Amino acid sequence: MTDFEAPIPFLDLRAQYAGLQPDLLAAVTAVFEQQQFILGPQVEALENELANWLDGPLVITCASGTDALHLALLALEIGSGDEVITTPFSFFATAGAIALAGACPVFVDIDPVTFNLDPAHIESAITSRTRALLPVHIFGLPADMDAIQSIAIRHNLMVIEDAAQAIGAKYQDRPVGTIGNIGCFSFYPTKNLGGAGDGGMLATRDEALARRLRLLRVHGSNQPYHHELLGLNSRLDVLQAAVLGVKLSHLSAWNQARRQIAQAYWDLMLAAGLDQRLQLPSVPSGSIPVWHQFVVRLPQRDAARDFLSARGIATQIYYPVPLHLQPALSHLGYQAGDFPHAERTCREVLALPIYPELTPAQQRQIVAALSDFFP
C-alpha cells in the first residue's frame, strides 16, 4: 500500500453519522424529554411514513428483522407439521425463524447468477405439508416474484418475503416486501435504513393479517392484561423510531448513491477486464436493486480477500456456510452436495465496500488492487 492510499473500511457508519448528528441528537433528546419509550405516537408516525414510502401497505414495526419473520409465520398460523420452502443461501434467521415457529425449512437451490431462490426448483419440493414460500431478496436484488407468486397461486401457498436487505428495491415497479402476503424488513444498523440497535417491520396489504400482527407483537393483547393470541414481546422502541425517522428522509438519496457506486464498479471493472476474471453482479430486466451489498464471485476468493486486506481494503464473506449445512439445522438431514449452486457460491463470493460515502478515489483503489491480484 502506497503512502497516499488510506485503509478503506467495509462500512463507514461514522461518516453517515457525521452528516446527521444534529438531527439525530435532537430527535433522541426529544424522546428523553417526553419519557415515552415503547410504542406510542412516534412509532405510529414512523409506520405511516414507511407505509407511504412503500406505496401504501399496512406497516407494523417490531423488535428485529428476525422477529418480523417469526411474527409473519405466527400470523399465518404456520407451525408444527408444516413446511416452508426457502433458500439455503441467506442469513441464518431466514431458516431459523421457520424452525423456531415449529415448522420445517425445506431448501431448494439458487440461481448461480442472481444468488436468489431459483423458482425452477420449487415445485419439485412441494408436498402436502407445504404451507408457504419464503424467498429472500438477497443483497438488495429482487427475487423472481412473478414466477414465485404464480407457483404459490397454483398450489394455494402463502408467500413471505424476506426483504431484510432490500428496502426500496423494486420488482416490475412494485416495492419488494409488498408483493407477497407479508414482507419482512430489518433495521439492523448496517442495513440501508439502519437504526441505533435492532429493529424490524412487517408490511401487508391484508387488514386482517395486519391486525393479527399488531396483536402478536404485544403478547397477543389489544388492551392491558387481556390476551387474544399467544404472541411475542417484539416492539420497536421510540428511540429507534426517532433515529429511523431522521434517516428515512435520506433513504432514497442513499439508495440512489449505492446504484451510482455499483455502476461505477461495473465501469471500472469492465475497463480493467475484470469481467474476464470474476463474475460481476447481474440485474435481471425489470428489477431495481438497492445494492445492500456488491458481491463478486471468483474461485480464488480467500486468496483475493487476503490480498485486498494486505492493501488495507476490508471485505466480507456473505455467506461462508449454506444454511442446509449449518450444525443447528443438522436434524433436517441435508448433506454436502444437495444444493451445488449454493455450496459453490458460498466458496466463491466476496462482498466489496459499498455505502453512500464511498468515494470515487476509494473505488479506483479497490478495483486497482483487484486487478493487481490477478497475474
Tell me how many strands there are: 14
Percentage of residues in DSSP E strands = 5-15%
| Helix-residue proportion | 25-40%
If you consult CATH, what is the topology of the largest domain?
Answer: Aspartate Aminotransferase, domain 2
Mean of all residue-level pLDDT scores:
97
Largest sheet: 7 strands, mixed
CATH architecture of the largest domain, please? 3-Layer(aba) Sandwich
Q: Distance N terminus to C terminus?
A: 18 Å
Biggest β-sheet: strands ordered side by side in the sheet: 1-9-8-5-4-2-3
Query: What is the H level of CATH, i.e. the homologous superfamily of the largest domain?
Result: Type I PLP-dependent aspartate aminotransferase-like (Major domain)
Task: Assign the structural class, choosing from mainly alpha, mainly beta, alpha/beta, alpha+beta, or little secondary structure.
Answer: alpha/beta
In the CATH scheme, the class of the largest domain would be Alpha Beta
Order of helices and strands: HHEHEHEEHEEEEEHEEHEEHHEH
Number of domains: 2
Radius of gyration: 21 Å
Discrete helix count: 10
Which shape, going by the Cα principal axes? globular
Would you identify the regions where 5 or more consecutive residues have pLDDT less than 50? none
